[in-house]
Amino acid sequence: MYEMKEEFKTGIEIVDNEHKMLFEIADKIYELLNNEFIIDKYDRIVNLIEELKGYAALHFRDEEAYMESINYKKMFTQKIDHDNFIKKLEEIDLNKIDENQHKYILDLLEFVNQWLVSHILEKDKLIAQG
Fold first, then answer.
1. What is the pTM of this model?
2. Is residue 1 included in any domain, yes or no?
3. Structural domain includes residue 52
4. Is residue 1 helix, strand or coil?
5. CATH number of domain containing 82
6. Structural domains in the chain (count)
7. 36-59: per-residue pLDDT in tens?
8. Radius of gyration of the chain, Cα coordinates, nearest whole angstrom
9. Residue 46: which domain range?
10. What is the rounded CA–CA span in Å between residue 128 and residue 13?
């Protein structure tokens, strides 16, 4: 379901390659949501949160380094968005996931989906314009 389409490309190779991986993680979340054969999804949810957090941190570091290299004027607001993304993931109470696994998967998918659509289309695409 989740794949990086042409409209999400910034034209910056490293950024686009890393965004593609974020779409792949979103797809894993979507697949877990729809997998009726796995009853207890707790461990998989936690693993996906950790994978997303780790990969996002790597991506944000690379993206910020690129913005710095081109003296991108909106880098500070980008960094705030990046920090807020990681903070939101760190604030997830892993102890509560077990209470309603389906809700947590939905919330995580909605959060990632919103990020992919709003942040990439509205902010990251501007980076290529300098």
1. 0.94
2. no
3. yes
4. coil
5. 1.20.120.50
6. 1
7. 999 999 999 999 999 999 999 999
8. 15
9. 6-127
10. 10
